[in-house]
Amino acid sequence: MIPLRDLNRSYATPVVTLAIIAVNVAVFLYQVTLDPFSGNHFIMEYGLVPARFHFSALVTSMFLHGGWLHLIGNMWFLWIYGDNIEDVLGRWQYLFFYLACGILAMASQMAVAPFSRIPNVGASGAIAGVMGAYLVKFPHARIVTLFWFGLIFTLDVPAVLILAYWFILQLFSGVGSVAEASVRGGVAWFAHIGGFIAGIVLILIMRTREPHLRRADLNW
Predict the structure, then answer these.
(1) Are 166 and 131 in contact (CB under 8 A)?
(2) How far apart, in Å, do the first and last CA atoms of the chain sit?
(3) Phi, psi dihedral angles at 27 (to 5 degrees)
(4) Which residue in 3, 5, 22, 135 has the most C-beta neighbors within 10 A?
């Protein structure tokens, strides 16, 4: 099943979400202009390689992607869930929240495979944090979701079901991948898990505003 869009109204233009998407797309477009050698060097330099860790990579790695599908999938999920979390946090708080979730997500993956020489890249961990926050703030929001069981159809599904299913899938996949986390590439499951949990914790302790109390001129 694939979430297509949510039916949850936002009360302000999601400026930060749009800016994050634009930066991710711009960086990827730069990546694809590089020749294979330069492209690999770029990923190794700015991706998070646990075996030669440097702090800046915790941030730069979340703006790199391994391919078009990786980029499109991440940006699609960010667009679905990000506007409402930006709405309740306000723009500056949301930017801090997004970056903090991404950093904690990458740190979680690194904790599982601290000596790995495989670069970790992608916005998935930060976006997982946004999804965790969405679960807390909007559990009953309806998500238009694409299903296929012989036939292709859509259903409006409560966010709590979609997000809980997603997290359980990450959890089981992550546990199954622990033994190979240091030697094989693929999905950084523990970045997803760590980011999701970070998003839940942060949204519970950060100051938020409810839609009926919000004013557009206070969003900054």
Answers:
(1) yes
(2) 36
(3) -65, -40
(4) 135
- Distance between alpha carbon 86 and the CA centroid of its chain, in Å? 14
CA dist 105 and 113 (Å) reads 13
**54-65 pLDDT, tens digit each:** 999 999 999 999
Cβ atoms of 172 and 148 within 8 Å: the answer is no
Q: What is the CATH number of the domain that holds 89?
A: 1.20.1540.10
User: What number of helices (H) and strands (E) belong to the chain?
Assistant: 8, 3
Decide: 218 and 91 in contact? Cβ < 8 Å.
no
Percent pLDDT > 70 in the chain is 91
Please state the domain count of the chain.
1
Q: What is the DSSP letter of 122?
A: -
Q: Which residues contact 110 (CB under 8 A, 6 or more apart)?
A: 48, 50, 53, 116, 120
Domain that holds residue 165: 2-218
Q: Which of 194, 189, 139 is nearest to 164 (CA)?
A: 139
